[in-house]
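Lab notebook, bench 4. We co-purified these components, and the gel suggests they stay together. Before we commit to crystallization screens, I want a quick structural picture of the whole thing.
Request: model the full complex, all chains together.
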Amino acid sequence: MEAALWAEKYRPKTLDEMRNQVEIVNRLKKFVETKTMPHCFFAGPPGTGKTTGALCLAHDLFGERYMDLFLELNASDTRGIDVIRTTVKDFARISTISDAPFKILVLDEADNMTGDAQQALRRTMEKYTNTCRFILCCNYSGKIIEPIQSRCAIFRFTPLKHEDVLDYLRFIANNEKIEVTDDGSNALIDVAEGDMRKGINIMQSAAALSGKIDEDSVYQVVGMAKPEDVKNMLNLTVKGDFIKARESLRNMLLRSGLSGTDILKQIHSEIFKLDIDEQKKVELADAAGEVDFRLVQGADEEVQLGALLAKISLYTK
Amino acid sequence: MSQLPWTNKHRPKNSSEVVGNMEAIESLKNWVLSWKRDGTNKKAALLHGPPGIGKTVLVETLAKELNFDLIEMNASDLRSGKIIDNVIGSAVEQQDLFQRKKIILIDEVDSISPKKDRGAVQSILKIIESTNYPIVMTANDIWDPKVRGLREKSLLIQFKRISSREALPFLKKLLDEESVEVDYDTLKSIIQRNEGDIRSMINDLQMIATGKNRITEDDITWLAWRDRKEPIFDALKLVFTSKDCFTARRALDISEVDYEMLFEWIYENVPRQLSDSSDMVKAMKALSKADLFIARTKKHQAWSLLSYVIDLMTAGVAMARERTKPAWIPMKFPQRISLMSRTMRERALMRGVGSKIGSKCHLSSKSSVRDFVPYLRTIMKNNAKSASLEKWLELDEEMIDYLKS
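Here is the predicted assembly.
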């Protein structure tokens, strides 16, 4: 059955179909030519082709039946040490019966792996190198321990250029016979922020909404998708309505699937746009950094972010 | 179905039908039977404990069972000293013509108002001195200074909250008699949310069962937690008004909830109680530090750290109050907990949708919820042909309805 979500339907199947991250793709093609590869570490923002790169590489190496030689695990769903000790190990240690030289195990969103799990992984990677190669994908390389990074070839995926995003969106629109106006293009680029998946999702929603992609439909989709957003929450904070701001924070955390870290990143970037003393911006950045660290330690997202909002409300008074 | 309140309809007919508190029932019965005019076993008994656990009912059933007359006065009656003398005073001194025995019940003595019920406590004390019949009083809070005199003159009998083990068979039988079906988990959560108050359990049940012959978990999600006068409010008062750390720290001891629940209560109410924003920020800072210590405590199983958690969340918040002017603002139940229970079903559905998307689109369920669900909603609501999408993602009816709503 053909994929119904465009983000999946138009995911490139082979390295040749990948139009962006040219240098990375070229190196991956070399792996295919030589039928060999090291453990790899794909770091970069969402929607820049990390998972696609891994899938295409496996496809080109192993052919259509690559799924037999390929295991994809998502570290956010299965992040504990048990999975590393059982599922990962079982897959990695059994060598292939086909003529393929090795198998590939992709650990997606690897930055969500617990520390213990990473330690366990490090040994597994080394022990079963002959039979299995690992590809770790993550947004922030800092969350992966040094010993693992040092065992991998590191590929940094950069945010896609606006024209590249637009090119591909135009290609999809053509195929789906959807009209994209000029102001619609600009709006798409503006909201996608270099994230291909986001761009495609917004375009498909806008197409469902109005049948054509123009400025109105794009911003309408974005507005509907995020009734509670960080900017709105900060506005409430600045106005001094802390209780409302905290409610908005709570809704985002409980209902929209945003993590505390996602929200913190956005607050952090907004801090420098606030109309306050430059000195105080530094203090707030310091406070944000402290919150980030505490979240890593397992502190409560709402309480920590709430305290940060309280501080912002005092400074903007 | 009868419209009579179930709390009346199913009121116990004799003391053996009263749920729970076996020991208390036994000691009250023994005391009544061995009561002597000379006061060897104290002339009055004071039944104390939280509301809705059967104190008054017990006295009523006991009187009937032992064939005593019951003379009753409760908080809804005006209770100035003079009225008490008139109603009860005369009753306790007269010997009944037919030698009928009597029990005098004075309900809710802790709610006697010092102003309106002037002289009431003195009158009751006088009556206890001269009575010819046993006097039984009830109170929720016997440590209220108003009732100190009564406390000293009385046999104290403590009533405890009804455990779910005790409440379960009773409520099941009640529902059987009303021909209402219920599953175990639903009944259990109704029991739990009422914290041992069997009267409010029955009230809740009647409220959600009216016009139905079956109740499920869905019916109770909207039931509000009762805003009861609980030790937690006294504890919060300590946290928000104490001038010294020692007093503030006592909050945990008197709150009757665990430290995490107390934390939620304080966290909810900080911005409400501390109207001065610099006080509020300081208090939030203390709470966020306490929260960090909680995380460390759990991560390293270092339970000795809990002591600092308590310091920060109680004394830390109390000391933050410097400029906020005194004002009476009601305490609010932790909204975060209400929202969690209200959105339980929604969040479970979301996770389900997330993992469906994730398995098709190579993403974790959490990222799927974040990156796809908002757009998926728009597509599904506005595209008549979204059926193929639903089929491809293998969404079930419930998920589809939820996403389209």
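Chain A touches chain B through 60 residues (CB under 8 Å). Worth comparing against the SEC data before the next meeting. The CA atoms of residues 39 and 151 of chain A lie 7 Å apart.
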